[in-house]
Amino acid sequence: MRLSYSRLDYYEKVFDQKVETFIQCHINAFNFFGGIPRYIKIDNLKAAILEANFYEPIYQTLYKQFADYYGFSPLPCRVRKPQEKGKVEAGIKYIKRNFFLGRKFASSEDVNQRLKFWLINTCNARVHGTTRKIPQKVFDAEEKDKLIKLPDKEFSMPKMGTRTVYTDCHVYIDYNYYSVPFEYVGKKVDVEVHNKTIKILFEGKQIALHGKIDGRGEFITNESHYPKFKCYLSTNYQEEYRVKMNRIGDSAGRLFLLLISKHPQDWNRTAQGILSLTKEFTEEVVNLACKRALAFDVTQYQIIKNICQKGTYNLPLEVV
Fold first, then answer.
1. pLDDT at residue 36, rounded to an integer
2. Which of 177, 203, 253, 274 is the 20 to 30 Å CA partner of 40?
């Protein structure tokens, strides 16, 4: 990062371009400068810009939250216009030629220590080739007081990641499961893990917010995230099936109530199967089969079908 007026530089070695890394580099640079520039010109890397557009860029959600927290405005360069960040491009050439060229390093930490020493004692202490002034002196005399004051607390960075939404409308995060609206099943969503909350986003828009679970293997489910046939409360969809089962007979209606109490999450397929038996058998036979199933506390479709096929619905019941 290079301050435009004084040409004061900050350099740091990293091994990836993740958004968390990019943000941490900003924080380290701000701490080095002792303040925050009001505008930061950035390249269009995905850690900051999801969709490059000169007039209305789409910012990476976490990066935009970070920029708002520190009070600066990010200004993306136009695509394939390196001259728009020419001062930084010149700085990259400078560090390659003046610091890295001809040097060998014993370790990663060796790079860090020698880079820090070079930054303070050579880079920012030299007479700059364009301004013909020493960056550190210009910064101290004219630029330092123009920076935004650092916040009392650093930006709290959540853990970031992507997940694919399972067919049961949940995503798996840190050994637990959190619900997502059903229309996102099969799609990749972004997740932010904060100290106490879980945020789930799709294309930068928050689609779910949950409290963070401390245990393992637990579920947090917002019932409104399910489609109608997955709502396990008294929904219109469930009521439609209750009416259809009652039309078969009283025993079928009672069996339906038993079915939804024993299998609240997958009752609908069994109910569909029982209703389909009326295509092969009379409603009276199906109702008697349901009566026998009730006597033995049975709700399985295949057993009820066997009762119909074998005619055992006519056998006497020991339990009514």
1. 97
2. 203
